[in-house]
Amino acid sequence: MSAVEGLQRALESVILNPKYADYLAVLKSARNGAVYGAKVRFSHALVMVFLFRNGTLREKLGHVFRATRTHATNLAKYATVYKLTMLALKHLGSEPGKEGKFDTFFAGLLGGYLVFGRRSKRGNISSVSKQIVIFVFARVVLSLALLSIQPQVGIVKSSNLRNRISYNAWPAFAALSWGSVMWLFRWYPETIQTGLKSSMDYIYVQSDHWDSLRTFLTSSESPV
User: Fold this and answer.
1) Which terminus of the chain, N or C, has less C-beta within 10 A?
2) Membrane-spanning regions, if any (predicted)?
3) What's the pLDDT tens digit per position in 116-128?
């Protein structure tokens, strides 16, 4: 047996030992968060930056890699905080070794605050963090709407009313979301997230202006 094979077997004996499973799950969760964040953000940032952002090739690539690093790092940090908190609550709760009903909420609360809720030294919140939180918030709203009509836990008890709400919830949510964002963009654009504001300006404002056939067919400007 070579030294490499011996080391591999020794590591596998530790990794496969149930005694260390909870702690190793923290590392695996951080790894998965980093990989997922990098995959999702790299492709998204690459397309958005090269389509809509001005600057040199070096500047564009720098923005792509910074956004990718931030997304991957944030998800890895959050996964680590969440898993460690869950592990601590599991062993420090009223019934040691058993997960409490609200452990996931408190672990998520702490992770959300430490990773996505903190400001930089300049007092800013990164656009990547804002996008992730907004993405999660939208899904939470939809999930709570669905939960409200569940027979066991929902606040709506009438089956007929539940069916009507279930059928009309998404159209109402979509209409209210778009109506609200267009109103905000028209009268309070400074309140809208920068990336969304740039995209909307490109579609709805710059489309009102042209001075030739070329600028009519191909816009002379693009979102920054």
Assistant:
1) N
2) 128-149, 169-188
3) 998 877 878 888 8
